Amino acid sequence: MADLLPGLYEQLLTRGLAERLTAVGARHVVEQGPLHDDEAADRIALYLGRLLRQVVEALPTRQRASLGVALARDVVALLEQYERSGVDAADRPLEAAQVLRALLTRRPDGRPDALPMPATPLLDTTLLTHAPGEPRVGFQLASEIPSADRIDVLMAFVRQTGIRPMLDLLRRHCEQGRVLRVLTTTYTGSTELAALQALAGLGAQIRVSYDTSITRLHAKAWLFHRATGYSTAYIGSSNLTHSAQVTGLEWNVRVAGARNPDVIDKFAAVFESYWCHDDFRSFDADEFRALTRPDTAKEPVYALNAVELRPEPFQSRLLELLALSRLRGWHRNLLVAATGTGKTVMAALD
Q1: What average pLDDT does the segment 91-116 reach?
Q2: 3-class secondary-structure state, position 69
Q3: In what order do the strands lie in the sheet with 220-225?
Q4: Which of helix, strand or coil describes residue 181?
Q5: Which end is more exposed in the chain, N or C (fewer Cβ atoms within 10 Å of the end residue's Cβ)?
């Protein structure tokens, strides 16, 4: 067993751990305290869960499911002895070691209405980094849409290249009477009117923040609500652009609500507070045009025919920092970027 290293811990004291701490001697100072009542359920469940996982993983591979379920039945039988626990024989897993995958509605002809599973299992919380061989976040998001009862999207920038691959899926979602809500901004002018119009045309509810005085919102997140309790969320760096969804070096965390319910609950609560905030206004195309129209009296706009200068996500972030710096009154700014990262493009866009 490895020696205990100095540092911070939050570990339930066991007999073995207490003996190891005694053996530390005078080399270190041991700090410990009581387990708080309001944290007891989470901490003890985490500890027992780790032990159960350790035991089940040690079982023979081909018998892991059957023997693991037998162990779970024994544990539930023990828990049934505690009065007012709410645990009874109905909570015992079946000996056959089966898992409920879906509850499907029937079509008029009696056939089940198929419902595809997301690319990542419903119970998995994972980090997506666009590493070689790893599914892109755009693919992951698309696979979540068919099974979602409601979708909430919090997105700093929305562009046509980002929504185009998933328009058909979102259209079917809205046609089935399911809610799609989108919160976005006009900060740095990256959000496209045509993209919002396309979403609105599907039946999406959209609210926009036109405040460009400071960085009001830089979040990129999706919440796929499922009435079954298996909601999932994506929180990370990917805006609704093609490069962010497919080619960019983007990091996103996929959170499973069944495993991390506190994260999902906080996401839902904060999203709702933003949705009701005066900073965000119901999308209107005419208002969007009026409030995002450049001031030609102060800044002449020059058009280049047949040329599209589109910043990559990291370039948008640098341009955003430059704009913010000027708003704070600093007009001598230095942008440093490696060779080949598009300093000329950033200069042109700036």
Answers
A1: 92
A2: helix
A3: 126-128, 252-256, 232-236, 220-225, 150-155, 179-185, 205-209, 280-282
A4: strand
A5: N
The answer to whether 206 and 196 are in contact (CB under 8 A) is: yes
Distance CA 22, CA 20 (A): 5
Looking from the CA of 226 toward its CB, the CA atoms found within 13 Å total: 23
> What six digits make up the tokens of 223?
């919440």
Report percent pLDDT > 70 for the chain.
Answer: 94
Gap between the terminal Cα atoms of the chain: 58
β-strand partners of 128: 252
Cα-Cα-Cα-Cα dihedral sign, residues 84, 86, 88, 92 = negative
Angle, vertex CA 148, rays to CA 94 and CA 268, nearest 5: 100
Contact indicator for 229, 120 with CB cutoff of 8 Å: no
**Does residue 188 contact residue 280 with C-beta atoms inside 8 Å?**
no
The topology (CATH level 3) of 126-291 is Endonuclease; Chain A (3.30.870)
Residues 6+ apart with CB under 8 A from 147: 115, 116, 117, 118, 224, 226
Alpha-carbon distance of 68 to 97, in angstroms, equals 9
pTM over 0.85: no
Alpha helix (H) residue ranges in 84-182:
137-144, 160-163, 167-175
Per-residue model confidence as pLDDT tens digits over 39-75: 999 999 999 999 999 999 999 999 999 999 999 999 9
Look up residue 226 and give its two tokens: 């499922």
Question: From CA 36, how far away is CA 10, in angstroms rounded?
Answer: 12
Helix ranges restricted to H, the chain: 15-23, 37-57, 64-79, 137-144, 160-163, 167-175, 193-202, 242, 261-275, 285-292, 313-327, 343-349
Mean pLDDT of the chain, nearest integer = 89
Q: Are 275 and 256 spatial neighbours (Cβ–Cβ below 8 Å)?
A: no
